[in-house]
Give the backbone structure.
Amino acid sequence: MSIYRDLNEMRLDVSQYEEESLSDIEQKHWVNRVKNKLGRRSMMAARRWVGFAAVLVLAMGVTLSYGKLTLAKIPATAGQIERFIHSENPPDYSAYKTIIGESAENAYGKLTLNEVLVDSDRLLISSTFEPAKGVDFNYQTQLRPSVLVNGEDLQLTRGSQSVRVVEGMYTVYGDINVGELPRDGRPLQLAITYDRIIGSGEHEITGKPIEEPWVFHVEVSTSELNAAITAIELNETIPLLHGEAVTIDSAILSPISTLIYFDAAEASDSLRLKLVSDSGQEILESEGYISDEPGERSYIRFRSIDVGQESYRIVPIGFDDRQELGQGVQIP
């Protein structure tokens, strides 16, 4: 199933939404997707940033106020993060995410931390922003969270996307790659800070910290996720053309995604990987990072798979033509 078929088969009532141009980030992501290219030392983008204004409606209930901190009643069926990952027929990740519903306010507006989803190496965060009167905020404006995990800064990369819900309300998504999360069975203590507004407009703030940032201290359970994660050491080298090679280090299987780590230092710029089942179904990739620097680990993230139902192979393919360059490695 292709991304285009996914989008074409969606049946949505979009009459209540205004049509807006894609942001620069979204345009670049879609250009990369259409060209079917993955650049060296760059992040791969997938369809997760696109189309959510048409499928996400944040249903907010009564808010109980306690000074600047409030508790917002958010329906459990909202499923914001699930639809952020899979816009159509989203799976149920309720066992792996934590509903927060806390709000904080400052001169720039009210921010509600909706929920946090923990994956094997990343944190996905959903929040709702209601800008104060006079604050120029739109879908191109970013609120990028900064996260401490158990008091430590484990962040490798940070990304965010703002989606207009209704007039004066935006859903803000954060994607924090933290490399490797603690798996000792104890809950994670997160300090989530939104201290910068990045964008354009009359009230542009770039590089200047907000004097009274939005700060949330939350506890997130990882026991269910840790029990469901499977780490598979592969350490198999695949010979390629012209004496090149790629080494597949490991596969991390979680209910949310499939993470493939590999060493591409001996491969050319034409390398890419695909994940395909024995029945021939190719699994959609979502993001990745490829480096030709010796000792630097590359990765590609795919949708989740169930190796108990079917076998899968990791296959090196061409950058442009997607032709197979080697035999591939079987995931046990």
